[in-house]
């Protein structure tokens, strides 16, 4: 507690899953949080004294710039919005590829372009991009578009870290393994028929994890708090794995 006192954080995709847990953990650690999501109704539930909510579609460049203007300078940018496309490369369409890159990668370009200038002016800031083990770290079945997009997130992270390392800005990627979240429930349901039932589909996701369990959003959030804090001042440009051993 207290690691982020005096800091202001901006979080995308904060209505559920990892984004929600992280917005709440930032506030718990003392930060003032601007929590955004395209789903305004679900986002409303996390508003509190330290958490201000605002609707934001990260596909909309003008809306991102307006949100940054309204937010004012922040110390921490948590880029969490992302979508999992399922399928191998032969099943991928141009449209799906374009959409995945728009939501998973270009969204981060937009928010970083919106918030980085004020971080540079103040000579300080932390950018955290949610990538995945399904990326340049590891190939996973039926994650062709997704893995490609998350590898790009790691590349973006390293280039931002490199270009601004002498100006007080750190940029890291977080690479979770399989984490319990509403969209994971959807993926389990989508695989149920092929797997022979919901339980079997769920068991297949759990089995990938060397630890034999899924991650909890709160576990990813705790790493985000650490990486955002001054205690992690020597860490930049890294793809930090938090994956229950899936990459072993
Ligand atoms: P989730 O997929 O359940 O929720 C995603 C959130 O993103 C929703 O609240 C949704 O409304 C929001 N969103 C969708 N489109 C948006 C847009 N255009 N603008 C703003 N918000 C939008 O949450 P999750 O599973 O915790 O995933 C969050 C991030 O973590 C994603 O980038 C995902 O790829 C990554 N990730 C998840 C897992 C996992 O197993 N759950 C593993 C590795 C990485």
UniProtKB/TrEMBL annotation:
InterPro entries: NAD(P)-bd_dom_sf, Sc_DH/Rdtase_CS, SDR_DHRS6-like, SDR_fam
Pfam families referenced in this protein's UniProt entry, alphabetically: adh_short_C2
UniProt keyword terms in alphabetical order: NAD, Oxidoreductase
One MF term in the entry's GO annotations: oxidoreductase activity
Keyword Zinc assigned: no
Top-level division of the source organism's lineage: Bacteria
Record family assignment: Belongs to the short-chain dehydrogenases/reductases (SDR) family.
Protein name stated in the entry: SDR family oxidoreductase
Provenance organism: Rhodovastum atsumiense
